[in-house]
Amino acid sequence: GEKVNIQELATNLATYKEQLQQVRELLADDPGNTEYLDMEKELSEVIALTEELLVAAKQSDGSSGHVSGNSSHLPSHASDDGAKFPVGTKVQAVWSEDGEWYDATVEAHTPNGYYVCYDGWGNREEV
Q: Which residue stretches does the UniProt record annotate as biased composition, category Low complexity (predicted)?
């Protein structure tokens, strides 16, 4: 099965923090910009989630807590027992706008499920 890569998570985390810093600098110049405010909120959430993942990955490193890439069912509750798809996994998700299934990529884990980006559309949402 796939193992959550601690190095990769740490790299992602550094990238997110750089992006957050840039967004905050933009906000300093333009504090009323809702797009920047949304970006700041999203980045803050992603950073918090990535930090949690990093902690969980370090705890399970060396133990048998690896994610099997073919789990056919998703847990109905958010759990940190490694049953989630790793960030970057290609998945199918229902888009809230039309209820259709589309190819998407897991960008982050959220308390309710996943934060995905729809391939080819660039739309992001929590599923």
A: 60-72
The DSSP code for 115 is E
**Rounded Cα gap, residues 99 and 82, in angstroms:** 28
Domain segments of the chain as ranges: 6-126
* Residue 89 near residue 115 (C-beta atoms within 8 A): no
Q: What is the mean pLDDT of residues 52-73?
A: 61
Pick the CATH number of 6-126 from 2.160.10.10, 3.40.50.720, 2.30.30.140, 3.60.40.10: 2.30.30.140
Q: In the predicted model, what is the mean pLDDT of residues 85-101?
A: 80
- Please state, as a whole number, how many other Cβ atoms lie within 10 Å of the Cβ of residue 7: 8
pLDDT the model gives residue 72: 37
d(CA 89, CA 107): 8
